[in-house]
Amino acid sequence: MTFLALDIGNTRLKWAQYESPQPGSALLAQGAEFLENIDKLADGPWSTLPTPQHILGCAVAADAIKRRVQEQMEELWDVSAQWVVASEAEAGLRNGYDHPTRLGPDRWVAMIGAYHRMLAQG
Q: Catalytic pick from 7, 39, 63, 106?
């Protein structure tokens, strides 16, 4: 049951595939591509990956870039990605933005992760 994590920034797409969608799961593969190369993912670095059962992504790039990544995933796998959108509150953390969705999803996920790591360490 593999898990693919995606971070689509303004210049690069970073990705990592894990054994499962659980904390501490083994890393199977990872990489990064400049956005001008994302149309080659299905023929290149993703071509040898096992089909992920779960895909979770953060995208701060334009919707057109996100669609191009989704096209690459559809070419290879019959799996729909879930995309993070910042909300008012999630996983015990509150978003202080007046308009919560203006907080970048990458930062929202990082804050939630840091918050839970802090809780786990006491």
A: 106
